[in-house]
Specification:
The termini are close together. This protein is an alpha/beta fold. Helix 4 (62-72) links the parallel strand 3 and strand 4. The strands form 3 sheets. A 6-stranded mixed β-sheet has the order 4-3-7-8-9-10, sandwiched between helices. A two-stranded antiparallel ribbon has the order 1-2. The chain has a two-stranded antiparallel ribbon with strand order 5-6. The protein is 31% helix and 32% strand. It has a single domain (2-188), classed as Rossmann fold (3-Layer(aba) Sandwich), CATH 3.40.50.2020.
Length: 194
């Protein structure tokens, strides 16, 4: 997705330690037109898989998950990081280390919104180590749902998350795959999940 790559080149900031700041268009301020294009591209790739729910993590995954779900015509469920009083006592819970927060986060989903009848597409802003996505897979598995694929807006292939997901037999699609980040340049992989 060339428009996405161009935004990353122009506005992405390498903060070191594998962290790419894309706050101006994905993670803090969201470009709605870009997110609609992202959702359309991901939905086009996974559309024929009988998906009933899109699952993501709070908060940065919500924008691309919402536009993907909109294009697919299905609901979005997101793993919450804090439990509100409106959530039932018994919930599905999974834990993942947060690269940007420097600590573990707990993701929770209510059993009323994810069931064994669901075919789930997981969407997130980044695919890096794959730990957050593995936590989302765990939530789906706790519900007895079938995970049919994983979509990411940006993949940092040098962190190895894709291999872990593909080893589970999952179909993975990333719209921009970064193979290297230097102080001066963000280098994209060619021919991988265009």
């Amino acid at each position: 997705m060339e428009a996405l790559k161009e935004r990353i080149r122009k506005e992405g900031v390498n903060l070191g330690g594998g962290i790419l700041k894309v706050d101006s268009f994905i993670n803090h301020q969201v470009d709605p037109a870009l997110m609609l294009a992202v959702g359309g591209a991901l939905a086009a790739h996974f559309g024929a898989m009988g998906i009933t729910k899109v699952l993501t993590a709070e908060i940065s995954g919500i924008a691309p998950a919402l536009t993907t779900a909109l294009a697919l015509g299905v609901p979005v469920v997101y793993g919450r990081k804090t439990k509100p009083i409106t959530m039932p006592k018994n919930v599905y819970v999974a834990t993942a280390p947060s690269h940007t927060k420097g600590q573990e986060v707990h993701l929770m989903v209510s059993p009323e919104f994810l069931t064994s009848k669901d075919k789930v597409l997981i969407i997130d802003d980044f695919l890096a180590t794959g730990h957050t996505i593995m936590a989302l897979i765990s939530l789906a598995e706790q519900a007895g749902a079938e995970v049919v694929g994983v979509g990411a807006v940006i993949e940092k292939s040098f962190e190895g998350g894709r291999a872990m997901l593909e080893a589970r037999g999952l179909r993975v699609r990333s719209l921009a795959v970064i193979k290297e980040m230097t102080d001066d340049e963000i280098i994209f992989a060619e021919g991988v999940s265009p």
